[in-house]
Amino acid sequence: MVSVNIASLSLTHASSRFQFPFSRLRFHFTQVLSPPDSSHSAKCQKAMGTPSSSVTTPLSAWWNNMSLSGVYYPSISTSTPSTSNSWKNSPFGFAKGASTPQQSTVPPSALSAGYTEDITVAGALLKDKINGLVDSLMRRASVNAGCGYGEDGRIAMMVDKVYLVDRLDAHENLLGTVHVTTTHIIFRAEDATKELWLATGLIASVERGTLTAAGCILVIRCKHFQVITLLISRDKSCQDLYETLQRASKPVSVNVSELLAFENREPVEEARWRRLDWNAEMTRQGVTQSQWSQSSINEGYTVCDTYPDKLWFPTAASTSVLLGSCKFRSRGRLPVLTYFHRQTGAALCRCAQPLTGFSARCVEDEKLMELIGKANPNSDNLFLVDTRPRVNAMVNKVQGKGFEDEKNYSNMRFHFFDIENIHVMRASQARLLDAVTKFRDVADYWKTLESSGWLKHVRSVAECSLFLAESISRGTSCVVHCSDGWDRTSQVVSMCQLLLDPFYRTIRGFQILIEKDWLGFGHKFDDRCGHVGALNDEAAKEISPIFSQWLDCVWQIMQQKPRAFQFNERYLIEMHEHVYSCQFGTFVGNCDKDRRDLNVSKRTKSLWSWMDCRHDDYMNPFYSPTAHVALLDLDTRAARFNVWTGMYNRFDGGIHPRERLEDVTMAAMEHVGVLESHVAQLRVRLAELRSQKQNLKNTRSSTPTTMVDSGMSSATDELKTLGLTDPLGAVGSPAPSLERATSQESGVMDASLYCPEEMLTKYSLKWQSLRGVDRCSAPGCRGEFSSTIERRIHCHRCGMIFCRRCLKNTADERERVCEKCKADE
């Protein structure tokens, strides 16, 4: 008879103050590379057991048919983090010589419906372990030797004795264990000095090296440009992990509703989900009903399913003109208003290429273009900007598309700009990443960077955007298109508005701009970002870094105009990460119709709401709202465009400055603000004491002499000992120690006159420096800051640096303090 004793198993997160029991395998998705918050959680998908061997025995048959609902639920530990031994006593394998852990169960009545998925995962891991035991009893070679994972290889997998290699040799290689779940990859060092969490949705590619004497190299390249290099000694374990990561990064399913964002279990505030109100935005721009009016032609997405349902056209345009132009444009994307310049009356419109072929024309489309020009009271001229190279536009004529014939459109001038297509941009970024991640020789770096052409492409987008901004500021309306009007068109029209309108350079305005010209007008985020698995080569060719390139353009402008933007570099980088992570529903779907059909505003969390909770992380300390209005003096010379190392080398230690100027300035301003607030509180307190002193003097002067001997003299003596001769004049000098007097015979003395010593010393005059800080100061956390971009936050009282999870706001929401300072209140 074989007796199996299964322990209460838990995974201790190195940078948190609590344990993650594997019996409740929950993985949070608030942070991708740092230990997750408890405020945003998503349960794992249901797990299944490993396949049984082809040889069937009574014991194995019983186990394979066992109901998971009968497995008792291990207790949840809330003690302090355990040592590394608790990790070894995990469901993936017991350490050699480890002591037998205590068994802990709860009655079956505790197995409520809310824990069904947790129990399923716990049962699957338990089943994996006993399957290995059955294999050993039957003397069969385990199909998962060296690893532990679920039936289809996606649920849970463990590979031990893995080295995390630092490719820049800035740090020593770390020996640890890799765990793969349905949502995350987790690496934990054996000495518990490092723990790395990576959402599987961020995996771009997995490369396997050749087997050497040291082992086999596995390189994981991520969509947010992190490169993880693992050295695995066993070839079979490396191959198993490689295949598992391949399946995780390229899921077979193309069902968007299976993305991590839809695993949300928390209530969603639908009212705060969106930022854009079309009517409010057009009113803010100053759109007048006399020239432009809203049309219901696309209500219910009947005319164009990649456009929003609210569109603005010239008031004089009839429905027949709009329908005729719609049929003449690719994908039905006819010219519509996206921005109105209040000062000049010029309009910025966008559309897709016309279906001209070699000779076709459309009277309705020509009429609509004429009406767009006439809607500008200051000029009838119209610029039509084609963002494609002329050669590409000519090739499209063969396919029955092409570009407008200038002779058929009145008062219109045509302009081409050489912005390449999505395929060129994809190859260009791949070469850029080769330059910034692979080459150490300076000559090879510059050669590869030049051959990538990335900075040239970024410059082309900036030049086209500047041309549009200058034209509109001079009073000339512009119509912009590329091929289908959702890639290059979105880049240049949104960049043009960023240059013209300071509202879009604020945190909220930037979100509205993205919702309007990227999400609203149908940039295909699912296809371009590869949110779902590509089933064929054609789908893989749709992936392209169009939005990443636009964020790069924004950063280039921020380097030239640092005071013009309310947000900082961290804002762009974290937004880029979560565009690809699929943890929020904001960037899920190819168009507004897709998001409405998926009901994302009710089923998923909004990225904007998540960023609202971290608003101070994204503030630019150098921002001046009145410093710039229109950024028309942008320098577009090639020398002004640089590689964005904060984005592409974000996780490379030793490359970035040890202190970021923005963070140092923000911390200094915050420190000064805390001290000034404290000084103001002391001034108020001193004024109160002065007033109370005066009241006591008045009381003394009006008291009969016979009362002085009965105790009033003692109050006078106490005031002298307090040194309150001139309270307000003593602010600049060291404050006296205000201690409670020992004698109050008469009881006339007011207790509010006494101020404890802690009130004067509870705020630290010197805060911890940001330089060299790579871990949270909380003893129970010690969480690692994954990169220089991740914000280090000071406690307002002790001045030490903590991660966001270890700081709490006070009751009045005026201070942010650590747990120790909060407990000392």
From TrEMBL:
Organism: Caenorhabditis japonica
Molecular function in Gene Ontology: phosphatidylinositol-3,5-bisphosphate 3-phosphatase activity; phosphatidylinositol-3-phosphate phosphatase activity; zinc ion binding
Domain Myotubularin phosphatase: start-end pairs: 272-648
Name of the protein this chain belongs to: phosphatidylinositol-3,5-bisphosphate 3-phosphatase
Subcellular compartments: Membrane
Chief localisation class: membrane
Pfam families linked: FYVE (PF01363), Myotub-related (PF06602), PH-GRAM_MTMR6-like (PF21098)
Active site residues per record: 482
SUPFAM superfamilies: (Phosphotyrosine protein) phosphatases II, FYVE/PHD zinc finger, PH domain-like
GO cellular component: cytoplasm; membrane
Key words, A-Z: Hydrolase, Lipid metabolism, Membrane, Metal-binding, Zinc, Zinc-finger
Similarity section: Belongs to the protein-tyrosine phosphatase family. Non-receptor class myotubularin subfamily.
GO biological process, one term: phosphatidylinositol dephosphorylation
Sequence positions that bind substrate: 421-422, 482-488
Entry EC number(s): 3.1.3.95
Residues of the FYVE-type domain: 781-825
Gene3D superfamilies referenced in this protein's UniProt entry, alphabetically: Pleckstrin-homology domain (PH domain)/Phosphotyrosine-binding domain (PTB), Zinc/RING finger domain, C3HC4 (zinc finger)
